[in-house]
Amino acid sequence: MVCTRRFCAKLVRVSLFVPCFVDQLTPKVGLATAKVLKRLGHDVEFRSAQTCCGQPSFNSGQWGVAREAAIRALGVFRGAEAVVGPSGSCVAMMRNFYPELLKGTPHAAEADDLAARTFEFSEFLVKKLGVTDVGAKFAKKVTYHDGCHALRELRLKEEPRQLLRAVKGLELIESEEGESCCGFGGLFSAKFPMISTAMVQVKGGALARTGADFVVSSDPSCLLQIGGWLSREGKPILPLHIAEVLANDA
Amino acid sequence: MDNSKAIFLKEATVNAADGVQRAFISKALGGYYTNRDLQKARYRDWERARDAASMAKWSAVNDLANVLEKFVNNFERNGGVVHWARDAAEARDIILKIAENAKAKAIVKSKCMTSEEIHLNDALEKAGFGVVESDLGEFIQQLRGEAPYHFVFPCMHVKREAISELFTKHLGTAPTDSPEELTMIARRHLRQLYVDADIGITGANFLVAETGQISITENEGNARLTAALPRIHIALSGIEKVVNELDDLSVLLPMLATAGAGQPMTCYNTLYSGPRKKGECDGPEEFHIVLLDNARTRLLADPEQRDALHCIRCGACLNVCPIFKNIGGLAYGTTYQGPIGSVITPHLRGLKQWNHLSGASSLCGACTDACPVRIDLHHHLLHNRRNAAKESPTLFDRVFHNGFNFVIKRPWLFATGGRIFRATLPLLQKLPLPYMGAWMKTRDLPKAPAQSFRDQWKHDHV
Predict the structure, then answer these.
(1) The complex's ipTM?
(2) What is the reported pLDDT for B97?
């Protein structure tokens, strides 16, 4: 197959890894992810046996339950060429924590293998495919929120910014509190709501002060927290997943 | 609910809602970030320096028995007296006995978190010995009758006016808002105490096995006076403070200063090499060291979390922690606050009573990135949570996660459950449900879509 400037040299059969809450609460993020990958010429599949990666249980100390979820995910994604998820957090679970969970079990080798085949969406585009311009247009001011798992577990900082800078018409504004956590932390946000809220006041306040139209992130869970607070406070800035920005080509 | 958890929740709730105090702490740390980054930039390679610092601690901690023995032999050769304390009570008894034998009247103490750990001041005062903190921050906290707020910056939460009022009340000085004048008031007050004291108690930042010296780092010079002027010097230190060689300090001392306080070097870095020797005209007549275990060997026995013993108590993890910044140091109710405190307190004081600190984290990992000796802090919070779930599982967690597992094991049930969840979400949001209600108090949820991703995908791809 012929490759153009934007299209990568090698076409990949991508298996989507759709976080459980994206599936149920923000399906547009999953659809946008698929749209961008297809536009680049890749085959995209969704294996419907997938549900949740087990991170809520893992983070709650219930490693037995999380281990079962991990072993199931190994089966779901067996044979997939590349597993791509629009969430730094869920991808970090598969990439970094499945190998830890399954260390010393008969599944250890397969966990390492899946970890090597699993990518966060912006990482997949920039590092695996070598693409930064996906042909998107978005004439808005945006600020970027680094999800902690993408930033510190997967070490992704420049990749999403490279993609956003290549979007036609988009203006990227950095915020104060650039690397601060939004305070989501999964069940933490509900178990310690007062601390979680104080954290989103700090982060959300800084994001709102940029004057951007949208806060963009590669992590839909952070956007749930930030968006939820911004909405409650009536701030004029909306949450948007990076896949939704990149899917926009009109 | 355990008492320590109830107190934590209460304090954290009050403090997290105190916007004025949070802004004060945030502003206080603002200068630190700037200075730290400036000083870090002076290193040719900060990451490699972290490797070296971590390796220096790793090699000592992983050979602790031998390295300690070498330190002790050399310390004794220098003329010092070594005391081993298994726990806090033993350490207190040792120090009390020294004070009794010396018929001490006055004791002065420089900054030493280990002494907070064993509640030394209480014990000394109960036994009738007056003890005065000579570090300015600790002196202020002692007058306030409050534990240190941050183990490096003990009174960072106290405003200047409050310090002035405190001095007026306790020392009878005129009110002032000049930091220099406040410092001079404390200095004038403390100077005579060094001269009068029979015993000076210090901590130790590093114990150098190679030379039998102890290394103390400070900004005020008070530790030097505390160690040098009184007749007896007692150093109290955790056993994990030992390093192999003097050369290890060439990386550890600057990193301690930069990571913790944004300084190139701390103002005073002093090596103490034993009591006054024959022919010397100054220095203490007796030099004791109390080497404290207090559950450190238990932590050492855990290969997964042993690296927590690498900690050089620089405070970097507190300075970058969004939890610490929003709830403050006193809410923890521990000797060591912030991420390192949340990691080690369950080991020092019991997992069941202190695991809530490991839960009170979004696991953002800022601490781990800041740690100059590469302690895997936020992952250790996960390890504590796992150990606690194994040791004393809560009924709620067991029911919730096993129920969740039952659902996610069955994609059809997950899809059906999701459909019901989306349909009833508007109603659920109005009910006072445990987790959902806590979320909804300050945040909205997105409007639930009619179709899930899997529904739409199936529709588009059949």
Answers:
(1) 0.95
(2) 98
